[in-house]
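Bit of a strange request maybe. I'm writing a small parser for structure token strings and I need a real example to test against, not something I typed by hand. Could someone generate the tokens for this chain?
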Amino acid sequence: MTAPIPADRSRRFRITHPFHPFRDREFDLVEHQEIANQSILYFRDQAGYLAQVPAAWTDFVEADPFCEVASGRSPLHAKSLGLLAELLRELRKEPR
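Reply from user aminoacidic:
Good idea to test on real output. This should exercise your parser:
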């Protein structure tokens, strides 16, 4: 789906990604789009240029409960770690 999702012109969001240069700054939402199953927010930076950021890097979407509890200690859910272990077994051709 590439159709724009109409934005509430008064909607503001804060960038929360720990390594983003605009972390903890608030911006006015210009447009919200779903592109290839990824939610993208468009905004104007301090110079007025149109910029974009994944919605997952902002407070626009609800926080993932796992990420909240993990507090940055683990970037992967238990299911993802299991899939990674399975992939490593396959690559090493280890018996289960």
